[in-house]
Amino acid sequence: MSPRENHRERLLRGALACLREKGYAHTTARDIAAASESNLGSIGYHFGSKEALMNEAIRQGSAEWIEQLGRIAFSDHGATPIEHLQAAWRGLADTFDEHRPLILAFMEALVQAQRSEELRNQLGDLYEAGRAAVGRILERAVREAELADEHARACASFLIAVCDGLLVQWFVDPERAPTGEELIAGLKAVLPVAFAR
């Protein structure tokens, strides 16, 4: 790794630490510089702005969580696609507390994005990267069947929407939020009815 890459990684680690400790809205550029043992100017040099660095830190943290969920989903190599999905949703619930500060930082960023087109675009890119990552996991889950790119993207968007909804419910009322098993049971009940016509 080159010194420049090393410095960039240090800034990302510092930003992630600040997001977890202070949240999106309360993290300053000085906080990140101190956490990464860097100077303020290095943030602009490597990322252009504090916001761009924070969004990249959220993207990196989210990508690591998606990879973790992929490992959980495929821990049973003989499972069916629906069993992989159920394992992923169960894993989402099991790892929620671990990633709670990152999720909260992302939600804070969503609110800030209503006043910043640049931030909206960056978060839109983050969602697009998430769709691609989830799409790759889906393609692996249904490896026996051919899944067209547009279908993988649509399915990934649906699953991300479900996950986002779950995260909001867990923040509000974790005791009564649905479990992975309840979601699967609900899908099994509603899909045949929805597609019967």
As residue ranges, the low-confidence spans are none
Q: Tell me the number of strands.
A: 0
Give the overall silhouette.
Answer: elongated
Q: Count every helix, treating DSSP H or I runs of 4 or more residues as helices.
A: 9
Nearest-integer average pLDDT: 85
Proportion of residues in β-strands: under 5%
Q: Under CATH, the topology is which?
A: Tetracycline Repressor, domain 2
Q: At the fourth CATH level, what is the homologous superfamily?
A: Tetracycline Repressor, domain 2
What's the number of structural domains?
1
**CATH architecture group name:** Orthogonal Bundle
Q: Which structural class matches the secondary elements?
A: mainly alpha
Helix content: over 70%
In whole angstroms, how far apart are the ends? 57 Å
Order of helix and strand elements from N to C terminus: HHHHHHHHH
Whole-angstrom Rg: 19 Å
Biggest sheet features: none
The CATH first-level class comes to Mainly Alpha
Explain what you see:
The chain is 79% helix and 0% strand. It is mainly alpha-helical and 197 residues long. The protein has helices at residues 3-22, 29-36, 40-47, 50-73, 81-94, 96-113, 117-141, 149-172, 180-194. Helix 4 (50-73) crosses helix 5 and helix 5 (81-94) crosses helix 9 (180-194). It is built from 9 helices and no strands. The protein has a single domain (51-194), classed as Orthogonal Bundle (Tetracycline Repressor, domain 2), CATH 1.10.357.10.
